[in-house]
Write a structure and sequence with these properties.
The structure holds two protein chains of two kinds. Chain A is built from 15 helices and no strands. Chain A is an all-alpha fold. Chain A is globular. The two termini of chain A are about 15 Å apart. Chain B is mostly helical. Chain B is built from 13 helices and two strands. In chain B, strands 1-2 form a two-stranded antiparallel ribbon. In chain B, helix 2 runs antiparallel to helix 3. Chain B starts with a helix and ends in a 9-residue tail after the last helix. Classes of the chains: A mainly alpha, B mainly alpha. At the A-B interface, helix 6, helix 7, helix 12 and helix 15 of A face helix 4, helix 10 and helix 12 of B.
Chain lengths: ~375, ~300
Amino acid sequence: MVEASASVKTGEPERESAMRDWSIRLRRNAEYVVIPLFALVVSACAFSLFLLLVGKSPVMFFELVQRGGFGTAFSIQNTLQRSAPLILTALAVAIPARIGLIMIGGEGALVVGGFASAAVAIPLLERVPPGPTLFVMAVAGAIVGAFWVGLAGLMRHARGVNETISSLLLTYIGVAIMNFFVEGALRDLTNPNKPSTKPIGDAYMMGKIPGTDVHWGLAAGVAIAILLHVLMTRTTFGFAVRVAGGNPRAALAQGLPVGKLIVACTAIAGACAGLAGFFEVAAIQGRANASLAAGYGFTGILVSFLARHNPIAIIFVAILFGGIVASGGLIQRRMDLPDATVLVLQGLTFMILLASETLYGRFSIFKMDAGRDRT
Amino acid sequence: MNDSLVVIVLLSLVGGALRVSTPFIFVALGECLTEKSGRVNLGLEGTLVLGAMSAYATSYHTGQPWLGVLAAGCAGAMLGAIHGFVCKLPRVNDVAIGIAMMLFGTGLAFFFGKAYIQPSAPRLGEIGLGDWTGDAKIASALQINSLLLIGVAVAIVMWWAFANTRWGLILRMTGDSAPSAKAMGVSVDLVRFLATTAGGFLAGVGGAFLSLYYPGSWNQGLSSGQGLMAVALVIFARWNPLRCVIAALLFGATGAIGPALQSVGVTQGYYFFNAAPYILTLLIMVGSAGSKRAARDAPGELSITK
């Protein structure tokens, strides 16, 4: 919306005014960076207080996050590895958010998408070469994921069912469906430890980005984020979505197909999360089992809100949180903290971030000169 | 032979419904109270889990399960108060805060609860509804807990108070139209804050039932969506506390199908029956969300039904 209002008044030919526009835009957009950063700092302080209350050292905690997430080349690669699904699950929140929906079904779409890609691979193994197999797996994951979240969008459009509740319910259903097959018809009987599907095998696993230890999911995530950013800001589709998200009644009055836009946005969201599931299966796990529901979908919600549902910002926030997730093991071992520590940190950050929404428009420093183009 | 099988299944279904439904009743009543004031708290799943953990820990340390129930209520009230306080700030979205509270409550519960997974705490006692029959099977199926009776009593009191007391009127007015509440000199924020806190208390008590009676132990998989389903159930019950109880019993029965069939040796499709309550909730939401009656009974200020 900021860009729309700024580009409206390029009618003035003078270079000087263009410069002033640019500085106003910068000032206004600075608010969207400064306030989330402020919320992050407050969350870090609040979490430090929490650690002090339970008798642990916050200094050590943040040092371990720094070392375990970003300290060495190995840890950076580990972090990037974990950012890949976070980018995709955050996009699964961001795109529906543009049309005004709070969709939290990313975890479920990741699980069913991952399961679908593992399942379609079974009959193809050793008959079809790895390349086409991986392609079919990716398509299956994306389609099933799109269906899963799209269903919540359809229910929203057709019956007015609250999408937040329905998408979370679909997550539970998705996990139950995967368990049903993994414990039953598709269970790999040679693996007695953990009910899983048949492994796709090393030959069929997805390779790494050359020169690194990071799988292609990261590159795909970044590319999809950029693509969706272009879709949302530079196309009529994206414009229609933003109008419908800003004011559904006005959009309907303009003849925009709001229902179709809702279903399309949720399907895109689901496809992103389903692809995250595909990458987890094809590049990390090699099979579908309960480890797919590792909480990437829920962390993705926080990532998207922190990035203010901006696909480009999501890439950077996802890398930050990938680092926190990656350092989880180190923190558990060194500080004797339970693995739920990260969940506490996330919940706290999310709460403080949402509370910081109230700060927008309260500081005059972001508004200087801005009254000029307000009518 | 076949008749007795059917009887066993039906008995364990009724018994299961009575047992499984209690947390649903409490969470639904808590959410009903909150939504009547015009605000939605989606975080009751987290409240339920934190309540379960606090109850178990308190019961373990003091040996008094009822103190555990109180602790659960207080933990729930604390989460509710945080929700109520943050939502009071302008431009803060109550649905999104609910998601944050869900993560935060679950995180706190798992963080502090890790030490209590192993030890066993004293549990709440039971009341034998079927003892008079002298049949051991019937007696064990119909054992209930006094929390169920308390929940039903709370529902009746709430139903009566909504319609007949000054507080009930203020609450309903705040939920239906904040401007008229303001015109009457009522502090909308205060009413909603109190309603969310009290709602959190009830949801916390529901959590105590999970860890102290049925299933009766604390672990991280204790609640899987019950809190969320109870929130959905309030829409189905059209914000009426008595209908909340009936809907909770229905949900309890659905949740009991899997274990009931398992008790007679039908294990096929166990995971499918695990998913049954979620699917039922979705179907009920699809059926009831768009209905005219739901639209009429919904509190006017509620963001979730708009």
